[in-house]
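User: Modeling request: complex.
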Amino acid sequence: MKYTILVYETPIELGARTDQRRQPAYWGAYRAYTQALKEAGIMVGGSGLQPPAVATTVRQRDGKRQVQDGPYAETKEQLGGYYEIEVADLDTALDWAARCPAAATGAVEVRPNLVM
Amino acid sequence: MTGPADDAHRAAELAARASYGRLVAYLARRSRDVAAAEDALGDAFVAALATWPRDGVPDKPEAWLLSAARRRLVDAGRHHTVQARALPTLYAVVDEAQGAASSERVFPDERLALLFVCAHPAIDEGMRTPLMLQTVLGLDAARIAAAFVVPAATMGQRLVRVKTKIRDAGIRFEAPEPHEVARRLESVLEAIYAAYGSGWDDVAGADTRLGGLAEEAIWLGRLVARLAPDEPEAHGLLALMLHCEARRAARRDQAGGYVPLREQDATSWSWPMIEEAEAILLDASRAGKPGRFQLEAAVQSAHAQHGITGRTDWEAIALLYDGLIRIAPTVGATVAHAAALAEAEGAERGLAALEALPPDATAGYQPFWALRAHLLRRVQRVDEAAVAYARAIELAEDPAVRAFLVEKSQALSRRADH
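Assistant: Request completed. Predicted assembly structure:
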């Protein structure tokens, strides 16, 4: 089954991306995690996302486009990226999700992909 | 009172539930779809419950159920009542199961794996027990709803939602790894205890809503204890259920009236069952890891001693409940603790323990009012006792317990009149 691992990061983690002192550890951890997924042969796709400050939210209402600065939801943890993996079952997906660096600080959501 | 005909009926029902549970486990594991497995077997199970008690349990019960289920699947395919996507898988799995059921070997029993699926952390905690009761024991949603005090339709919807999640999220159907077994064991044990009927403690009287599943629950308890030999709590639960079960017959007099523990005829207890419980508990205690079920079993063990020595060690029971409250602080444990304190140190002490409970927690809790009434009567606070009896009677769900309390309450007013 294909699952998407949604990586929710705290402002502190997101801040580490550009903080010179914390940068190496942050990127190092994600590089290692991505590498592990690839080596296991389960990685289907995925990407890191630029921070929520860069997000733009759009709604189409009554034929009119409403464009808004910022992410869809104003929550403490924000979507920082996602991985798509293919594994046998939820339990395996959860094992991998638990290894994602954000699992220890933010939260990681696991969703089965819709079969179209 | 049960006669031979009732026993035969009961045995046939247990056989139907056991076979049904084994088949749901088998089909669900292979189709990874609990709802579809239940759906395929539902009508066959209803037919078995109707005919086996009358005609006897068939030679190969699983094969019987599967033949009936296959006919229903064919109909379902014709009428598009089962999701078309699920059908080919179900056909194949039913055929595979039929092969296993017709062979000379015993049909594989994967109910325990199914129990652990039901206790999966990805499943809403409050729904784990209802799910187990339905999938493994074949209870219908209405009966589960009654036990959990929610409307039947609500329980039905929640069960559907949970099964959809199991299927769509792709939860694994294999028995979990050893470290995971320990984690999920608590939910499994809770469910088995709920199935046994948790109302067997001495203050509360019999909770008969789930009582009919006692034998199945004990069976499941044995199975879990066998799978997790190093988990003392699994053995504690089994010991607890056996202790309670040993006294089942003594809980009612000839006329079906309620007999409180201290007035029971110990010669009508099942002593082989008590001895088995004692041996299991002793073995479990050697691990030095006490838990809720071991403590509750130890309380029952202390009560059983009364049948041997003629006296009950209430100090020890009060201590055990004290330990229980530390592990699992529930209103039930606190009320039972108060009952033991009243016996060990006097009614006033018991009343004080009851008064320490927040009124919100006790307003609708029947055992609280029954014990309060009993203790107030003992200290001659007759008017207050009458009020407490009225509340206890109002809240009593078991007619025999209600009749017992009405009798006590009337004796109280008779005495007050003189």
